[in-house]
């Protein structure tokens, strides 16, 4: 049994992680601020039978108190999604980066040497691409003029020909293209520095598009699956940006919770090994790529709603294709997603969501 602190443990992903760790027999403490971007209602008094301590991870004294007697931390607390506009920038940096810095400082002070941190596919920017003539290529950020003209796929930076998307692995460079993405990269760097300097171990789980029961409903910080479902429930057609051909990997929240439990076990093994300090990153994905348009269409069929409308609209900071290779997570953690997109979406359209 491990005594685990789960930050953000009353949120969408955090509550699933908390439940999985309790089921696995761990002694869990939950800390959650009830941030309005994630909670439109008061934080529940308990999750999976664990009392929720309502406090902000930026509160040094509250974090220090929550860390008493703790062996490991599973850090889920973060402000997520694309947000509204650049006015959100200070809150993203405060919640994600300052909050992580406070947590790491208090972990070092308390001698807690094991960390699992929620990261994201957004750290990559665009995914992996190849040019038929020039091989592997890193496209430049897309420009508004191309997007407005319907040229959504990034061209080869050398010859201008279309690039073929592939699977991105953890060795790819990090190239954040939104405020949220920049904060997730910073979180990983902070965790890596903490691990090296304190002789500790950290695992960064780079979640891909997480969906499932308990997902927040339609807010500027929600995932696209919840936005599509909210539209269909209101009798509207889901609106799909660009041409709907953006490739993503949708991974069920129950699989993400399992990945966290496996990562927690891996930190124990690495601490026992002694010299294996530092940060190791893993893609957490279903391994079954799809497109945003296909997900919208599948949800519309399952709910008997209107077919999706492809709008051609776009958002600054969105990337075109990012699909993961989950090979490292399977090889080193033993993680393999159990819920495929077809079964997951069939469940999701009827599952309870968060207000």
Low-confidence stretches: none
* SSE topology string: EHEEEHEHEEEHEHEEHEEEHEEHEEHH
What is the radius of gyration computed over CA atoms, rounded to a whole number of angstroms?
20 Å
Q: Count of DSSP helices? A: 10
Shape: globular
Strand content: 15-25%
Largest sheet: 8 strands, mixed
Proportion of residues in helical segments: 25-40%
Distance between the termini: 33 Å
Average pLDDT score: 93
* Structural class category: alpha/beta
Q: Please report the total strand number as a whole number.
A: 18
Strand order of the largest sheet: 3-4-2-1-5-6-10-15
Structural description of this entry:
This protein is of the alpha/beta class and 355 residues long. Strands 3-4-2-1-5-6-10-15 form an 8-stranded mixed sheet, with helices on both faces. It has a 4-stranded mixed sheet with strand order 8-7-9-18, with no helix packed on it. A two-stranded parallel ribbon has the order 11-14. It starts with a strand and ends in a 7-residue tail after the last helix. The protein has helices at 12-23, 60-66, 89-110, 144-148, 179-198, 224-233, 253-273, 292-303, 327-333, 341-348, and strands at 3-7, 27-32, 46-47, 50-54, 72-75, 114-120, 128-131, 135-137, 164-168, 201-207, 209-211, 239-240, 247-248, 250-252, 278-284, 290-291, 309-310, 323-324. The mean pLDDT is 93. Helices cover 35% and strands 20% of the residues. It has 10 helices and 18 strands. Helix 3 (89-110) packs parallel to helix 5 (179-198).
């Amino acid at each position: 049994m491990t005594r685990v602190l789960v930050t953000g443990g009353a949120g969408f992903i955090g509550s699933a992680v908390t439940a999985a760790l309790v089921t696995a027999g761990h002694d869990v403490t939950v800390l959650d601020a009830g941030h309005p971007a994630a909670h439109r209602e008061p934080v529940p008094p308990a999750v999976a039978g664990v009392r929720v301590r309502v406090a902000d991870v930026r509160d040094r004294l509250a974090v220090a108190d929550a860390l008493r007697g703790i062996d490991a931390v599973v850090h889920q607390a973060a402000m997520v999604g694309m947000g509204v506009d650049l006015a959100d920038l200070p809150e993203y940096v405060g919640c994600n980066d300052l909050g992580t810095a406070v947590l790491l400082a208090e972990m070092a002070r308390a001698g807690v040497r094991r960390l699992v941190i929620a990261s994201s596919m957004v750290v990559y920017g665009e995914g992996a691409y190849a040019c038929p003539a020039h091989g592997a290529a890193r496209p430049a950020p897309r420009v508004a003029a191309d997007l407005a003209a319907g040229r959504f796929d990034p061209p080869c930076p050398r010859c201008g020909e279309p690039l073929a998307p592939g699977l991105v692995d953890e060795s790819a460079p990090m190239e954040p293209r939104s405020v949220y993405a920049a904060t997730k990269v910073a979180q990983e760097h902070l965790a890596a520095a903490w691990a090296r300097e304190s002789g500790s171990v950290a695992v960064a789980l780079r979640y891909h598009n997480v969906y499932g029961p308990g997902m927040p409903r339609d807010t500027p910080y929600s995932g696209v699956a919840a936005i599509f479902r909210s539209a269909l429930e209101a009798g509207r057609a889901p609106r799909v940006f660009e041409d709907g051909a953006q490739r993503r990997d949708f991974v069920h929240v129950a699989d993400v919770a399992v990945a966290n439990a496996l990562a927690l076990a891996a930190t124990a093994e690495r601490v026992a090994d002694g010299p294996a300090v530092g940060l190791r990153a893993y893609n957490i994905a279903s391994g079954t790529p799809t497109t945003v348009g296909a997900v919208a269409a599948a949800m519309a069929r399952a709910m008997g709603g209107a077919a999706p409308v492809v709008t051609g609209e776009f958002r600054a900071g969105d990337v075109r294709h990012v699909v993961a290779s989950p090979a490292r997570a399977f090889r080193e953690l033993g993680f393999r997603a159990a819920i495929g997109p077809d079964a997951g979406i069939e469940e999701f359209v009827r599952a309870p969501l968060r207000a």
